[in-house]
Amino acid sequence: MPYIQSRWRRAAEPIIKRVILANTAAGGDEKALAKALRDAYPFGPREHYPYKVWCDEINKQLGKGYRYFRKNQSFKPPYEGKLVFGQRPEGY
To answer: Domain limits of the chain?
Structure first.
């Protein structure tokens, strides 16, 4: 079954892509891109879930990774040992 995106992400994706391409073609710098993306925000007030999706999609398209993995959070690789149902490995 294919992944179903939210309507906010489906609406934001082409707008952000168009703004990034236009800024790149014009030779704009990072500040100009940030201003253009701020001006292109289509969902009214910048709050709640639509704004989170907008920021996440910008980071995704700019290759900055997802907001869930920040530098101050420790990332633990998946546990590779044998697990018995109901047990948790040490340190997890």
So the answer is: 7-61
The whole-model pTM stands at 0.66
Residue-averaged pLDDT of the chain: 80
Block residue for tokens 């989170």: 52
Place of tokens 């891109």: 33
* Orientation angle between helical segments 7-26 and 30-39, nearest 10 degrees: 140
| Cα-based torsion angle of the residue sequence 4, 24, 71, 52 in order, rounded to the nearest 10 degrees | -40
What residues have CB less than 8 Å from 9, skipping those under 6 apart?
53, 57
Q: Both tokens of residue 73?
A: 């959070």
DSSP state letter for 29: -
Tokens of 59: 């980071």
